[in-house]
Design brief:
heterodimer; A: mainly beta; five-stranded mixed beta sheet; 9 strands; B: 113 residues; mainly beta; seven-stranded mixed beta sheet; 11 strands; 55% strand; globular
Chain lengths: 111, 113
């Protein structure tokens, strides 16, 4: 299974943009890039996913490098409620794909 | 009602006891997963199931077993609990295909004394 690499932690100030990077140099052509986040004392929740083109939804934007070996989750204006662990995972949807998570990035948002 | 329900939410038990964590989902999805979370280690996959007759080991299946009683139910068992199985356990479900998002339960916190 292709793996992802994320920084252990990042820090941001409230109302400023946050760019969370993810490297996935062994990504295959059929892998979708998914992002999840885990708020304190909760289960992870879906944020966004994409294949090749940049994607936007109400929670965030996903910027995917042209060679697809890296991606960036963008929170346009961080709030205190965005403080969480953010996970980047790959999903090929194949019949035996496991959906494994790494350690993620702990985002701290300062008031 | 929650999409994914885990019971119990909290459990304290003793070494050597048998423990079952239950998970049920109302999404109608075929795929179900059990993950374990320890501080600083992220989420690690224990077992996953693509349908009632298809169960697979994940990264850390030793010491655990599972049962897929129905499409909506997936139970995790610790036959003889040990202290290093103290952790937060999450059940999840998703639809098939590469775009299907995972829906997680709220977690079951297990403490083995």
């Amino acid at each position: 299974d292709a793996k992802t690499t994320q920084p252990n932690s990042m820090e941001s100030n409230e109302e400023e943009p946050v760019h969370l990077p993810c490297n996935h140099s062994t990504i295959s052509g059929t892998d979708y890039i998914h992002w999840y986040r885990q708020l304190p004392s909760q289960g992870p929740e879906y944020v966004i996913h994409g294949l090749t083109s940049n994607v936007n939804n109400r929670m965030a934007s996903l910027a995917i490098a042209e060679d697809r070996k890296s991606s960036t989750l963008i929170l346009h204006r961080a709030t205190l409620r965005d403080a969480a662990v953010y996970y980047c995972i790959l999903n090929s949807g194949g019949s035996n794909y496991k959906l494994t998570f790494g350690k993620g990035t702990l985002l701290t948002v300062n008031p | 009602d929650a999409d994914v329900t885990q019971t119990p939410r909290n459990r304290i038990t003793k070494t050597g006891k048998r423990i079952m964590l239950e998970c049920s989902q109302t999404k109608g999805h075929d795929r179900m997963y059990w993950y374990r979370q320890d501080p600083g280690l992220g989420l690690r996959l224990i077992y996953y199931s693509f349908d009632v007759k298809d169960i697979n080991k994940g990264e850390i299946s030793d010491g655990y077993s599972v049962s897929r009683q129905a499409q909506a139910k997936f139970s995790l068992s610790l036959e003889s609990a040990i202290p290093n199985q103290t952790a937060l356990y999450f059940c999840a479900t998703r639809s098939g295909g590469p775009t299907g998002e995972l829906f997680f339960g709220e977690g079951s916190r297990l403490t083995v004394l």
